[in-house]
Amino acid sequence: MMLVNGKQSDTISAHDRGLLYGDGVFETIVIRNGKIDFFDQHLQRLAKGCESLLMPKPDIETIRQEVQSLCKGKTDQVLKIIITRGQSERGYQIPDNQQTTRIVELTPFPDYPSEYTTNGVSVMLCQHQLGINPALAGIKHLNRLEQVLARNELKNTDFTEGLMMDTNNHVIEGTMTNLFAVKAGKLITPDLSGCGVAGIMRAIVLELAEKNNIPCSIAKMTPADLLNSDEIFLTNSLIGIWPVKNIGEQKFKPGEITKKLKELTHQ
Amino acid sequence: MMLVNGKQSDTISAHDRGLLYGDGVFETIVIRNGKIDFFDQHLQRLAKGCESLLMPKPDIETIRQEVQSLCKGKTDQVLKIIITRGQSERGYQIPDNQQTTRIVELTPFPDYPSEYTTNGVSVMLCQHQLGINPALAGIKHLNRLEQVLARNELKNTDFTEGLMMDTNNHVIEGTMTNLFAVKAGKLITPDLSGCGVAGIMRAIVLELAEKNNIPCSIAKMTPADLLNSDEIFLTNSLIGIWPVKNIGEQKFKPGEITKKLKELTHQ
Fold it and tell me: Would you tell me how many other CB atoms lie within 10 Å of the CB of residue A266?
């Protein structure tokens, strides 16, 4: 079920800048037992993304109402919200009078095996890299070709997720997840000041770590740093926390800190 | 007038990956006096872009027919062709059975003052940079947020175009044009192996230079190299060649090589 600017529809204008230039932002949100997970945080990030891309503030109250009306009677679903810069004439110039396009959609919850959460997932290091651009770093925008190409490297493999490096060979994130490592009792997650998506679950984990006195740092991370870790796990809003059981051939055990953070996020 | 997969329409599915991820390529082509400029070259680049993004080969014969039918009786128009990876379920994974979306559209020719061609344009150096990613370099894909943000720097200025550097501070191109400089009788255009769009008019100019014994190189270019040039000009399919009359405060004169190449491209 999908609403486009509040009306039931599954099409958009072919002049929408979301299509023409990937000119917009999106959120992927979990609805569990009829409750919208971290809705405020997602709405805040959506607003921040719009601001970074010089788009008008999204009408949060309208989004709330549309989401509530769509979710009525639903239990476990994925909610996707897209805000684009709307239609314009040909050309990159941002129009003076931006009329954003708002898409709100519910889709069934993906069918991930529960062992991904309990035993962990196999991941690989992708060849495709993330270009560095601080102006776009952290934003969940619609320019996602890098992830599309990296994700394709997993095709016909047994790997569940692929890790991406930036063009300076620092490990940044998974194609659809953020990355955490634990070394000597200390939590580390890659610095996203140059590229990557600043995930909501990443922020939640960082907050929980701080509240629970788990030492934590945001830092540059090489593949060697990562492979030298004691524990590794992935996060996103849909999956919560997935321990990593191996990167390529190298095995990892889900350890105490991963376990504790899973408990703290109620997994 | 617009055809979506051969049918008159101005909408696409909101599940189209062109919208969701900027997952596709496009061409902007000139129709002058009813003749399609460099049509074969554009179709070749479209096919090459699809190949680079692991999309199916576009059906060139169908595109030709659709373009011919749209163009009937038209004289001066801009033809835009977009090919996206089509619809898929949520997630970056490229679907096994890709059904691309084909959009063909005619719009009126933009109303550029003729003095841009004769006397040249004022350009500025943009703050927004191009991320480096060799896997996407050269392709005219739909991930264009960098250009959108850079283009916006021109707002409320008298500059006609903005030049963009990559994150290594090499000058790469304009937001909608390719860049050429002339120094001591030698033509230079920036290396696009890390980022940028390999424009059709850029290729035409390179070819004409070679045929006409104008020494030419593709090289890395710093802002200082650029400002030390004798002549500078911009190219794209719509504008042909625009001499640059100033970059910020620094003035340039349209010189002999710019003039010769303008003649050779029949401007």
Answer: 7
Secondary structure letter of residue A16 according to DSSP: B
Percent of chain A with pLDDT over 70: 100
Distance from CA of A19 to the nearest CA of B (A): 4
CB contact under 8 A, A94 and B14: no
- If pLDDT is split at 50, 70 and 90, which confidence band does A7 have? very high
- Domains of chain B (ranges, CATH numbers): 2-108 (3.30.470.10), 115-264 (3.20.10.10)
Structure tokens at B6: 């051969």
Angle at which helix B200-211 crosses helix B256-264, to 10 degrees, equals 110
Residue type, B97: N
Are A107 and A164 in contact, with CB atoms under 8 Å apart?
no
Cβ within 8 Å, pair B167-A132? yes
Question: Left (φ > 0), alpha (ψ -120 to 50) or beta: where does A91 sit?
Answer: left
What pLDDT score was predicted for residue B2?
95
Look up tokens 């008019």; give the residue: B201
Task: Pick the residue from chain A with its C-alpha nearest to B148.
Answer: A92
pTM: 0.97
B43-72: average pLDDT: 96
Contact A146 B129 (CB under 8 A): no
pLDDT above 80 for A124? yes
